[in-house]
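step: validate -> pass
step: tokenize input -> pass
step: predict -> running
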Amino acid sequence: MRRHIILAAASSLALASVAGFASAQSVEPLSAGSTVSGSLAEGDQTAPDDAYLYDEFTVEARAGQRFEAVMRSGDFDTYLEVYLQGVTDEPLAVDDDGFGEGTDSRLRFAAPTAGTYLVRARTLSGTEGGAYTLSLAERAAAPRAPRPGGIRLGQTVRGDLTTRDPESDAGYPYDAFAFRGRGGERFALSLDSEAFDPVIKVGRMTSDGGFEELAENDDGPDAGLNSRLIFTAPDDGDYLVRVTSLNVSGTGGYSLHMEQGPPPIAAQGIAIGDTVQGQLTASDGKSTGDARADAYRFQGREGQRVRIDLTSSDFDTYLELFDGNRVSLSEDDDGGPEGTNSRVTFTLPRNGDYIIEARAFSEATGDYELAITEVPPDRAPEALEFGATIQGEVTEEDSRDDDDRGFDAFTFTGREGQRIQAIMRSGDFDTYVQVGKAAGDFEALASDDDGLREGTDSRLTFTVPEDGQYVLRVSPLGSDEKGLYSLELVDRGPQPQAGSVLVGSTARGTLTENDATSEDNSHYDAYRITVREDEKLLVTMVSNEVDSIIMIGREKPDGAFEVLASDDDGLSDTHAKLEWTAPDDGTYEIRAGAYQQGQTGSYALSVEKKPESH
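step: predict -> pass
step: emit ->
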């Protein structure tokens, strides 16, 4: 990936690229009001099975802060996703063709909590990329939503979706209609529009004024782009229907109709450990998405982990898991091990009944097989000492993560500021390493796929945030892989302290494995420099051994490094040049680093006063 900043403006949002599936990228800031240009090409990050190419950025956002990201390309169909950093199983928001025409993307998103979010700029599919631009804008606070209208059984409401309507957290305009339901009562909702691709959502208000979505439908079976939804009220209370568009720019007239829903599909009994053969027919009952489906009921325990597989050679399968009140808990289309089969792996939240719906992705009939198995509890992690290298094997009997990958786990004791390095090698599979805290449910604080830059082996470099116990999870990148591996844990000590450099001087150095590492695990040397407000500097970094990147920033009160400016290849293809003006009197830090993770070698860093233009 190659990028350069076209236009910059001050903002509290800072973006930076992070490591992904296939190769790590270096940090580059992007402020609201700025645009970057880049390209997706061979060598960029790729999703498993080369499903798509992508670049990634992180966003530091305040709770409730709203922004709009726009991705444009004349070379490929663009696609944008937003994730909570470290949780990349399911995006929080996505957009394909958000302008309503063409193939450019416009994604609007509001941060539900303060923290770091991941923006993924990608191709819609495949590895045919090209040039693109990505811009970020901060959006004003959303207007207060008006009191919703009402709708009742047998009623048809006609309305218009406009740009003056209230917006969801993702920036989509909507109209809202309230109705009251009894626990177990079923409602059939139809939403039709010739002006936009309609989406219907049903939910309820939360105590803090938010919207809790309980059910949603985009394109109902045999309804074209129109929406059909069968909703079962989980308990007595007030509910909301939201009428919105698939695209943020969708507006125009619509009609919404509500009637009594059909009785729920009679659920057959199934026990954990069973495999059943079934058949979808034209006489089957209707699912929540108004599609033909079969239903199965089983009993589970709180904390029990189950895996449900739906396979068919006759149709593209779709699987959904509900609680006993028909509230959706998890669903899957093609997550099974092969082709268009479905798999849901889920930890049950409470004791009681659960319902499985087996159906086709689109209206279809045919034979299928449904299996439900219990996933064994995670094995207790083994202790791993610094300096040790162990041999292990990932097998079918190992613990499984939320992506259904088999994994082994190891604990170590870390000190605040300590840098650790975990190196995983395998000749049998593409390796993947994650690190997280030992207490509570596992949540990855950092991960690595191909950081060793030797094929598909991993090298994860991590700075321990506080004293305590930590867990390493080692696994294949794919859910259907297994085999032998080796794992080495290395103590790299604390981050090296920054040196100093004077204006008008050149520092010559060498990046090594013992140097400091940025968030994406790429190495850098740091130099402190003291300048006056509005002082203009020209900083260059030249190297024949690494792809150079320069970052200038300063330490924030919480100790984090704030990037104020950066450059990758402003001097030439692998040499960096950065022109920078100091915003205030003070001491700043210049980081001379490698653009890619794992690169080491010598360099020359020059800092000069920027020549006056005449």
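step: describe -> The radius of gyration is 27 Å.
step: cleanup -> pass
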